[in-house]
Amino acid sequence: MDYRHNRADALERIDYSKKIRRAHENPAVKKIYEEFLGHPLSDMSKKLLHTYFTPRGEVPGFNFGGMKGQHAGHVKENMTVF
């Protein structure tokens, strides 16, 4: 068993032990949307909660999980941070 599997198992155990397991059901998240952000994907929520990663080329000495072909080294992600 490798460290990734152990980490995934640990995170799953932590997740299942929590009373609130879904961000959209969290009272604090609901309140900030109601009072400040408006709704998911609003301009304000995008500005404050979203981040974008732009490819910067290869990183010497780092393997991006065996990615090959046209997308190797060109990962672009869009994520929401709660």
Topology at a glance:
Blueprint: H1 3-17, H2 27-37, H3 43-49, E1 50-53, E2 77-80
Antiparallel strand pairs: 1-2
Description of the molecule:
This protein has 82 residues and is mainly α. The protein has one domain (3-80): Irregular (G Protein Gi Gamma 2), CATH 4.10.260. It has helices at 3-17, 27-37, 43-49; strands at 50-53, 77-80. A two-stranded antiparallel ribbon has the order 1-2. The chain is flat, with a radius of gyration of 18 Å. The two termini are 31 Å apart. Residues 70-75 have low confidence and may be disordered.
Number of domains: 1
- Low-pLDDT runs of 5+ residues are 70-75
Structural class: mainly alpha
Query: Roughly how many Å is the radius of gyration?
Result: 18 Å
The beta-strand count equals: 2
Question: In percent, how much strand structure appears in the residues?
Answer: 5-15%
Which class in CATH terms?
Few Secondary Structures
Query: SSE string, helix = H, strand = E?
Result: HHHEE
Main attributes?
82 residues, mainly alpha, G Protein Gi Gamma 2, two-stranded antiparallel ribbon, 3 helices, 40% helix, 10% strand
Summarize the structure.
This protein is mostly helical and about 80 residues long. It contains three helices and two strands. It is about 40% helix and about 10% strand.
